[in-house]
Design a protein that fits this description.
Helix content: 25-40%
Number of helices: 14
CATH architecture of the largest domain: 3-Layer(aba) Sandwich
Order of helices and strands: HHEHEHEHEHEHEEHHHEHEHEEHEH
Length: 379
């Protein structure tokens, strides 16, 4: 079935006999047993709920996985994922990560006995040089947040399979519409469903999608034990959001390309980080492993004054955290998404007073450009 059709119809499971076109919201914490030792397949909503199951099966099909698990947030999904590992285990991760992921690793996972090396995963030699006897997994964001570095998933997968390591890929920025890491050899895909999958800046959600039943069983046990499942109503909102995923991703990318090209010509802009620009270091890899470039742009301006002026004077674009929704959002990574990183780590990566991140929404591209232009003029 075509991806566009899957977005609309998702799972082919039917839960009632009313003929409802919209998936029902099963707002129930518990379910009646037909008899002792018998079950309808649903016992308690922390374990499974029909609305959430429809969503999970939809995302598993979109990512070509064997199972998907829906969590109450992306961070809840990542926290559960870390429970696969034991004290003393070592994980290699991208050195340019969403700040919340790095915060979890540095402050919670390390406390629980895990060890991390953060490397440029675009360089396979850096990954290989960091592998040791205790290494259990490689964790990759591609493109990374906020500097849009690209990792060759298939190349890293070959290395991981040679060394018996799990490959985990955060696919939040591109979604399965543009990139399917499991097809490229990844074992687990992570999503902040809050972003493009939901698409409306109104719901928190997270997902893990897995490539085999063994991983599914292990994560399902963690899931029901730790309990950060997605509610039935939020599951329904995600089902509704995914119905337009293919349309939104294409339109947002079209606008992002126009805006990135415009930014490249602005006197106050010193650098533009957008994977869809041919001079981007990851452009050729992206052409091989993805069908699109997404709608996330980071750019560096000439001064802190210009950055603050942009944030305070945009009118259509909203100065707010998050990304992937219908509304365009501009973010100041050093004070928002990456504020909890140690200052030396931020500055080493170039996350400083002049770096801004733009999530291009569904507004007219020309209106967004005009908004950025007027904000630059008064800054």
């Amino acid at each position: 079935m075509n991806f566009d059709t899957l977005c609309i119809h998702g799972s082919d499971i039917r839960y009632d006999t009313t003929g409802a076109v919209s998936v029902p919201i099963f707002q129930s914490a518990t379910f009646v047993h037909p008899g002792v030792g018998r079950s309808t397949g649903y016992d308690y909503s922390r374990v499974q709920n029909p609305t959430r199951e429809h969503l999970e099966r939809t995302l598993a099909r979109l990512e070509n996985g064997v199972d998907a698990l829906a969590f109450s947030s992306g961070m809840a999904a990542l926290t559960a994922l870390m429970e696969l590992f034991s004290p003393g285990d070592h994980i290699i991760a991208s050195d340019d990560l969403y700040g919340g992921s790095r915060r979890l690793f540095d402050n919670i996972s390390v406390k629980n006995g895990l060890e991390f090396d953060f490397v440029n995963t675009s360089d396979i030699a850096e990954i290989e040089g960091s592998i040791r006897a205790e290494t259990k997994a490689v964790f990759v964001e591609t493109p990374t947040n906020p500097l849009m570095q690209v990792t060759d998933i298939a190349e890293v997968s070959r290395l991981c399979k040679e060394r018996g390591l799990l490959l985990i890929v955060d696919n939040t920025f591109l979604t399965p519409y543009f990139q399917r890491p499991l097809d490229l050899g990844a074992d687990i895909v992570l999503h902040s469903g809050t972003k493009y999958l939901c698409g409306h800046n109104d719901t928190l959600a997270g997902f893990l999608v897995v490539s085999d039943t063994g991983l599914s069983e292990r994560l399902r046990f963690i899931y029901k034990t730790t309990g950060a499942c997605l509610s039935p109503f939020d599951s329904w909102l995600l089902i509704r959001g995914i119905k337009t995923l293919h349309i939104r991703m294409q339109r947002q990318q079209e606008s992002a390309i126009k805006i990135a090209q415009w930014l490249c010509g602005q006197e106050k802009v010193r650098a533009v980080h957008y994977v869809g620009l041919p001079f981007h270091p990851g452009y050729s890899v992206s052409l091989r492993q993805a069908s699109g470039f997404g709608a996330m742009i980071s750019f560096e301006v000439d001064s802190e004054r210009t950055a603050l002026g942009l944030l305070e004077n945009v009118k259509i674009i909203k100065y707010a955290e998050s990304l992937g929704g219908a509304e365009s959002l501009i973010t100041y990574p050093m004070h928002q998404t990456h504020a909890d990183l140690p200052e030396e780590v931020r500055r080493q990566k170039g996350i400083n007073e002049t770096l801004l991140r733009l999530s291009v929404g569904l507004e007219c591209a020309e209106d967004l450009i005009a908004d950025l232009e007027q904000a630059m003029e008064v800054s």
